[in-house]
Amino acid sequence: MKKKDHDKIMRTITEHLKREGYTVKYKHTPKIQGFKPSIYAVKSFKDIIIEITKDPNRFSQNMRKWRRFGFNNNGTRFWIVTTPDLAETIKLQLEVFNIPAEIYYCNGNKLKKA
User: Rounded to two decimals, what is the model's pTM?
Assistant: First the structure.
C-alpha cells in the first residue's frame, strides 16, 4: 500500500471514530499482547483495536497478531480495515482460522462494514 493511500485510510478511520466520540491513538499505540495495532480507540472504557491491511501476501504473517487481537478477553472489539477488493478474502480467512473480528473496507473516503 502506498503511504499516501495508507494515510488517507488512516485519516478516514480516525475522523469516523472521533465523530463517534472515541479518543484515537495512531502514532503511539499501546502494545497489546506483544503487538502494536495500526489504531487504538477508546470511549467510556470501550476499546477498539484496528488493523489496516491491503497486502494479501502478508495475511498469513498477520494471523498470529490477529488471533491475539481477536481473542483479547477484556471485551475489546477488533476491526480489520482493508480495501473493498480484499474484504471477502479476509472474511474467508478469518472464518477458516476462527478469528473474531469485524471487517470494514475503505476506499480512502468512506468507511463501510463488510
Answer: 0.91
Q: How would you label 61-93 residue by residue, b for 16+ Cβ within 10 Å and e otherwise? A: ebbebbbbbbebeeeebbbbbbbeebbeebeeb
pLDDT digits (tens, 9 = 90+) for 42-88: 999 899 999 999 888 887 788 889 999 998 767 899 999 999 999 99
- Cβ atoms of 54 and 86 closer than 8 Å: yes
> Which own/partner pairs from 53-62 qualify as long-range (CB within 8 Å, at least 24 positions apart)?
53/80, 53/81, 53/82, 53/86, 53/90, 54/1, 54/5, 54/6, 54/82, 54/83, 54/86, 55/1, 56/86, 56/89, 59/89, 59/90, 59/93
List, edge to edge, every strand of the sheet that includes 102-106.
Answer: 23-25, 39-43, 46-52, 77-82, 102-106, 111-113
